[in-house]
Each structure stands twice: as C-alpha cells, then as structure tokens.
Amino acid sequence: MTFFSICDCGFRRRGGLLRWAGWAVALLLFLRAIPLQAQSLGQGLSAFQRQDYVTASRVFIPLAERGNAGAQSYLGLLFETGRGVPQSYTEAAMWYRRAAEQGDSRAQYSLGLLYDRGFGVPQDIVEASKWLNLATAASPPRVREARARIRDAVTTKMTRGEIAQARLRALEWAPSREH
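Request: output the structure for the sequence above.
Response:
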C-alpha cells in the first residue's frame, strides 16, 4: 500500500506533488530565515553590550533597513550617541520614529526626548508628550516609574490645551508594521 492510496490529498492531480513540494521548500526557507535574523539581532546586542559599537552597527543596519524594530531602536541610540557611527540626531530621530511607529517603547521614549529638546526634529512639546505617554504606558514595570517622572516633568511645561492635545494624539495612535 502506498502513500497515495492511503491519502488522496490531491497529489495525483497533475502538478499537485510539485506544488506541494514547492510550498514545503518555501516554508523551510521561511522558517530557516527566522532564527538567522534573531541570531543576528542577538549578535548585534552582544556586540553592543561588549561596547563594540562598530560591529553592533554593522549588524543592526541591515536588520533595521528590513524593518526590525529592535535593531532600529538600537541603531537610533548609536546615532544619537555617535557610537560606531557618526553622531547625528536627525538619523537617530528617523530610526527611533520607525521603531516607535511599530510600538517599541524604548524608541518611543527616546523620540519623545528628542522632540522635547528639539534635537534632530523640530522642538514640539505636544509630540514629545504623546511619545512619552505611549512609552510610559508600554514600559516594563522596572522602568515605568522613571519614565513617568520624565513624562510628568515635560507635562509641567505644557498648557492644559497642549496636554489634552498630546493625550488625544496618544489615544488615536496605533502601531503599524513596516512593509
């Protein structure tokens, strides 16, 4: 008794087996790519923790360009501080924004601070407050209190109308994935 006599899953149709094999190969390639990307991000984080920022930037750049929010966030930090790459607040803001739009709370926090100071972006207290509100709400418990203090400090510089506008922007915001 053969496989085909046990299960008639459409393989007997002309090209059915080839179609199935094609999907199986595509699935295997997809599944194999996932750990490679995760491993590369891990390699970048390892280099970052060793303070090998040039290597970290070389790992993060291709991942960030492909839409990896974690890599984008760390790349923003590298550009903000000038570690492993030329210091550029404009580049930092761009990478933070890409990660922040995907819901990365570290990037949201950092982008909020850039808007508060006007580094790499026009100074905009309402936009700063929006990102700091989102970052605080999505923060892990160990950093939530510290982020809340910074958010509250920024809020003290705002009018009631600006506070309301920032809260509305935060409420209307929704994460989006890069394509």
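The mean pLDDT is 86.
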